[in-house]
Amino acid sequence: MTPLSGHLEAMRTAAPLVQNVSNFVAMNVMANVMLAIGASPAMVHARDEVEEFAGLASAVTINIGTLDAEWSECMMLAAGAAARRGVPWVLDPVAIGATTLRRQLGARLLELSPTIVRGNASEILALSGIAARGRGADAVNAVAEAEDSAHNLAHKSGAIVAVTGAVDFVTDGTRAMRVSNGDPIMPRVTALGCALTGVVGAFAAVASAFEGTVAALAYYGAAGEVAARSANGPGSFQVAFLDALYTMQGPDLDAIARVRAI
Ligand SMILES: Nc1ncnc2c1ncn2[C@@H]1O[C@H](COP(=O)(O)OP(=O)(O)OP(=O)(O)O)[C@@H](O)[C@H]1O
Ligand SMILES: Cc1ncsc1CCO
Ligand SMILES: [Mg+2]
Predict the structure, then answer these.
(1) Are 126 and 145 in contact (CB under 8 A)?
(2) 228 CB near ligand 2 (under 6 Å)
(3) Ligand 1, from 4, 127, 196, 248: best to mutate by most atoms within 8 Å of Cβ?
(4) Which of 26, 159, 231, 242 has its CA 20 to 30 A from that of 197?
């Protein structure tokens, strides 16, 4: 396996263009996070250009956070274009269990073979068909409760499935890894999970989906730990987090990362 630092350095060297069909809450947060890591984000989602743009991008991410009928159509077009062209694409199934609209779109997007699915425990449980206790965008379930579902979902869909939370779990349906970096203040800032999906996309542009996902999660959590040391609350954390993502070097990442195979 390439060291985590190798994937971070490759991502920064490539500065991949990542197209994000995201949501109204996350767009600004996500674009700033992606610029801080050294990627090139483009929040492009209009029906008339979304497919064409997917041909230019090195990765595509789809987030159903604030969907309506038109967003849904644009997401299907972007995911379809990425899948046809072999561009890695990442699904973020925000609050997928909450409504019929979300469940139905989630099922249709899964048919377009996402390269990676990244969600919190409640979302991964719901996406794999098990009633989960998520109330909206926030997880109510622990990651461990969703590990079997993640395994089955990966097996069935062919996607790498990442369940994030206090200890992240990543599986391709056969092997699995846990990443135990991060800080409990991270879910107190909106859209940090959504922004993480963009970071996963940037790493998937330069690495295999499994290794890239693990590296992205470790880097994100490690930067969260560094930022939390100087933060007084969610406001100062958000600023410190962008700085930590920006300043973290490969050797820092290898030293702070807590990644283990299961
Ligand atoms: N309790 C926690 N302790 C440590 N780190 C955490 C914790 N919760 C979240 N994190 C960190 O935050 C990252 C994103 O996680 P999270 O699962 O909260 O996303 P999310 O629920 O999709 O967020 P959102 O939908 O609000 O954008 C995780 O990969 C992890 O690094
Ligand atoms: C709060 C919120 N509501 C819809 S999307 C979103 C961002 C976190 O997922
Ligand atoms: Mg989320």
Answers:
(1) no
(2) no
(3) 196
(4) 231
Is there an atom of ligand 2 within 6 Å of 26 CB?
A: yes
Contact 204, 196 (CB under 8 A): no
Residue pLDDT tens, the chain, 262 long: 789 999 999 999 999 999 999 999 999 999 999 999 999 999 999 999 999 999 999 999 999 999 999 999 999 999 999 999 999 999 999 999 999 999 999 999 999 999 999 999 999 999 998 656 666 777 778 888 999 999 999 999 999 999 999 999 999 999 999 999 999 999 999 999 999 999 999 999 999 999 999 999 999 999 999 999 999 999 999 999 999 999 999 999 999 999 999 9
Predicted complex ipTM? 0.97
Q: What does the block give as tokens for 73? A: 């159509």
User: Structural domain tally of the chain?
Assistant: 1
The values of phi and psi at residue 166, to 5°, are -60, -45
C-alpha distances out from residue 35 to 18, 56, 79, 130, Å: 11, 18, 23, 36
Asked whether the beta carbons of 116 and 59 are under 8 A apart, the reply is no
User: How far, rounded to the nearest angstrom, does the alpha carbon of residue 103 sit from its chain's CA centroid?
Assistant: 19
Ligand nearest to the CA of 28: 2
Q: In what order do the strands lie in the sheet with 259-261?
A: 40-42, 17-21, 59-63, 89-92, 116-120, 160-164, 168-171, 176-179, 259-261
Whether the CB of 137 sits within 6 Å of ligand 2: yes
Instruction: Print the domain residue range for 230.
Output: 4-261
The binding-site residues of ligand 1, defined as CB within 6 angstroms of any ligand atom, are 94, 120, 137, 139, 164-166, 168, 181-184, 186-187, 190-194, 196, 217, 220-221, 224
